[in-house]
Amino acid sequence: MNSNAELLRQLKIDKSHKDTPGGGNGGGIRTAVIVLAVVLVLLALAGGGWVFFARRPVEVRTATAVAPASAAEAGAVLQATGYVTARRQATVSAQITGTLTEVLIEEGDRVSKGQVLARLEDNALRANLRSAQASAAAAHATVAQSEAQLTQALRDADRQEALVGRGLVSRQLAEQARTQADTSRAQLQTARRQAGAADAQVGVAQVNLDYTVVRAPFDGVITDKAAQVGEIVSPLSAGGGFTRTGVGTIVDMDSLEIDVDVNEAYIGRVQAAMPAEAVLDAYPDWKIPAHVIAIVPAADRGKATVKVRVALEAKDARIVPDMGVRVSFLERRAPTASAAPKGVMVPAAAIVQRDGHDVVFLVADAQARRHDVTAAAASGDLRLVTAGVNAGDTVIVSPPDDLADGTAVQPAKPAP
Asked: Torsion angle of alpha carbons 142, 144, 148, 149, nearest 10°?
């Protein structure tokens, strides 16, 4: 008990040690410094927190602006996806093996049927042609010689016959002259046949020489240049992969059509000559009239689909092979007046008022970007925007009132 009392006395403040002028200022200064440091730390923490929370992305709900559906799309009995293909396409090669000396094409070039695309080295074949022509000339000279000999032999035979009639020579001499004429006639026939064979050899040499020139088989566009000057090309694969089998690929753009894989469960909805509408993935606002060419009578067992050929009724340079396309099969052809309106459809909640204007906030580079828009008619939960937004843009649905241009945002995660 006494020890406790002693402890209490030790804890009691001794008032005799009050600050005296010039004696206790050191403790007050230290206290002020500590308080100031604490205040600075709190301010730094508050500023860091403000920066953290100010730059933290705001979670927002988003949607994609889409092109408005036309009356044709609305009346579609089936929609399917496919690709643009070319019915007339060829990889052009030489018909003989040789070294390229000229390649006269580039990707994108338009060529006409018969136009020269490339040339091969032709010195040996050109020499063969000259040799064949020389042989043919010699053969024709022999024919001329045989013709002259036959003419002379016929004259001699006639002369001997006349002398026999006058009794001046024997019948044997006349018969010998006639035999010589027949022999000359046979020699002429042989010479003519040899000349014909020589002409044929000239034709063979000319064809082989022509094989060194690669020509376009039809009008089209070059889509691939597969060989360069100095490379060896051959109609057959050879040389362990070092020999090119083609010079380039040519596509007839007028033969473009669409191949669509339709699920076999819905193939009964598609009929030959059925009207359709095609939309290229690259140009979602462009509606291309089309119709069904044929339903290929074979199914893909692995994908459970049937291929349908669809013709494009509009030709355009923007349509190229292997483009992705969406096809709507229609019950009937939609009138022109019912084409889709201009603009895009966005959720009505994405359009808000700011400063008396209709605006939407788009997501670009993880930031909200304000766009003034021109809004038109509403269709259910969607609204048509005719200016300010493009198809494919990501819009913010129900943007917060304090959302500003440039605010960092991130799409909200879907509810589980």
From this structure: 20
Q: Rounded to an integer, what is the distance from CA 406 to the centroid of its chain?
A: 37
Sequence-ordered alpha helix ranges (H) in 166-301: 171-210
- Nearest residue to 66 via CA among 278, 384, 366: 384
| Distances in whole angstroms, Cα of residue 350 to Cα of each of 80, 106, 250 | 30, 48, 48
Please name the amino acid found at residue 349: A
- The secondary structure element, H or E, covering residue 81 is strand 76-86
**Residue 221 pLDDT > 70:** yes
Q: What burial class does residue 304 get, using C-beta atoms within 10 Å of its C-beta: 0-12 exposed, 13-18 middle, 19+ buried?
A: exposed
List, in sequence order, every residue forming a beta bridge with 110; answer none if it has no partner.
221
Sheet (strand 374-379) strand order: 344-347, 382-387, 374-379
**Tokens 């009794």, residue located:** 167
- How do residues 40-61 score in pLDDT, each as one tens digit? 767 766 665 554 444 577 788 8
Structure token pair of residue 235? 């109609």
Count other Cβ atoms within 10 Å, centred on residue 6: 9
CA distances for 2 relative to 10, 60, 395, angstroms: 13, 71, 80
Task: Name the phi and psi angles at 346, rounded to 5.
Answer: -130, 160
Q: With beta carbons less than 8 A apart as the criterion, state whether 108 and 209 touch.
A: no
Q: Which of 28-37, 212-221, 236-245 has the lowest mean pLDDT?
A: 236-245
Task: Kindly state the helix (H) or strand (E) to which residue 125 belongs, with its residue range.
Answer: helix 123-165
DSSP code per residue over 325-359: EEEEEESSPPPGGGPPPSSEEEEGGG-EEETTEEE
Q: 95-148 pLDDT, tens per residue?
A: 899 999 999 999 999 999 999 999 999 999 999 999 999 999 999 999 999 999
pLDDT at 216: 95
| Gap between the Cα atoms of 107 and 87, Å rounded | 19
pLDDT exceeds 80 at position 37: no
At 109, give phi and psi (nearest 5°): -70, 140
Spatial contact of 358 and 371, defined as CB atoms under 8 Å apart = no
CA–centroid distance for 396 within its chain: 33
d(CA 266, CA 306): 9
> Mean per-residue pLDDT for 16-34?
57
62 token code pair: 């988003």
d(CA 231, CA 97): 11
Spatial CA neighbour of 118 closest among 232, 1, 273: 232
Radius of gyration for the alpha carbons in the chain, expressed in angstroms and rounded: 47
